[in-house]
Amino acid sequence: MTKFVDKTTSRERRDLDLMRDLLKEKERLHDEREKRQNEIVMRREKEIRDDMKQLAASEARVAALQQQLQDQSMLPSNLRGEFGQRGRPYSMDYPPRSKTDSWFSSLPYPWVPWELGYQRKVSHQHSHQ
Distance between CA atoms of 89 and 12, rounded to whole angstroms? Predict the structure, then answer.
């Protein structure tokens, strides 16, 4: 009978150990799942914050453009880019200057960097023909 009791006790210990291992594994899986969910939530919150920053920047740009448009509409008609005496818009004679002067703003003529690139490309194409 002691042999039977020993076998039963041994089996019960194994079962108990197995149940403990299963509970530990279940807890580990739960912790991993919770960690993944937290990472997803944090990543999504960061995306939302980034989207909000982009939206705020876009709204600021829209507000600046609206203000610029309103300021232009307050100018007399000959200063608003409407056709003047020579049949050309005022803006063609006097291109708008940005609020921050750059190093090339002191040049004696209007200079557009992409025009030089276009001229180089055109002259380069003509030289190969």
Answer: 97
